[in-house]
Design a protein that fits this description.
Layout (H helix, E strand, L loop, with lengths): L9 E8 L4 E3 L6 E3 L7 E11 L6 E10 L8 E5 L3 H6 L1 H12 L2 E8 L14 E8 L8 H10 L1 H12 L5 E3 L9 H50 L2 E3 L5 E3 L4 H4 L1
Antiparallel strand pairs: 1-4, 2-3, 4-5, 6-8, 6-9, 7-8, 10-11
Helix pairs in contact: 2-4
Length: 254
């Protein structure tokens, strides 16, 4: 809009279409996905631009957004130790601080608290702010790059947010917990350990059994050798250690 002042200031909005799955930055007209994870296809959105003059002029157009199955989310969740109603009231300032410290265009996708009841909205001291960053070419900044920059600028961000909230602020990056093992996987692991233990015990038994057999075979061989040597030797040692003749006594020859 070539006009000046309010007559040239445009605000954008979603008029119809999948408005629950998309959102739009009213100042820049940038369209963002909100809840299309796991979905694929083409979505038709009707967008309106309106100037802010006394007699508002509007124009509409249809935008077709195609989401493929390989789309990944670069939304980063920032957790603030502030009440949700206070965070919602200062969302624009939060966005400003993040853009200044990160050096990217930042869009606040959603502000969320674990407590959904109205009475808890002013008592829960933890609010989750979902953000997504765009570079100068309006390309999404990978989530890992955003997280890295947030960690680097954590101190400065918290100092600036303290000015916004007039209180001490803690800004932490929320990380998804590691997926716990399923009961089937746990059962498979336990069964595998039991089978492995049983197999090792079987191997130990076989080894000991072979060792015992070799010992008995060796003892039998020694006895057989002693008997053969005794037969070949006319003299042998008795139990008392004295030599005795293995020849038959004379009275037995008679």
């Amino acid at each position: 809009d070539p006009d000046s002042g309010d007559n040239g200031r445009l605000l954008y909005s979603l008029v119809s279409g999948q408005t629950n799955k998309f959102d739009i930055n009213e100042n820049t007209g940038q369209i963002f996905t909100v809840s299309v994870a796991g979905e694929a296809g083409t979505f038709n959105l009707e967008i309106q631009a309106a100037d802010q003059g006394t007699r508002k002029l509007t124009a509409r157009t249809t935008v077709n957004v195609t989401v493929d199955s390989s789309s990944s989310s670069n939304i980063v969740m920032l957790v603030l130790n502030q009440k949700i109603n206070v965070v919602e009231r200062n969302s624009a300032e939060i966005q400003r601080v993040l853009e200044e410290k990160l050096g990217w265009n930042v869009y606040v996708v959603n502000i969320y608290s674990k407590e959904s009841e109205g009475k808890a909205r002013s008592s829960t001291e933890e609010t989750q702010v979902n953000i997504i960053a765009f570079d100068e070419a309006y390309q999404e900044v990978p989530a890992e790059n955003v997280k890295r920059k947030l960690r680097e600028q954590k101190g400065d961000i918290e100092l600036e947010l303290e000015k916004v909230f007039s209180s001490s602020v803690s800004a932490a990056i929320w990380e998804a917990p590691a997926a716990s093992a399923s009961p089937e996987l746990v059962a498979a692991i336990v069964l595998g350990v039991l089978l492995a233990g049983t197999f090792l015990a079987f191997l130990a038994f076989v080894h000991l059994d072979r060792k015992r057999r070799r010992k008995y075979e060796k003892q039998d061989l020694v006895k057989k050798v002693e008997i053969v040597e005794s037969i070949d030797n006319p003299w042998a040692v008795d139990k008392n250690g004295s030599l005795k003749s293995l020849e038959k006594p004379e009275h037995m020859n008679n």
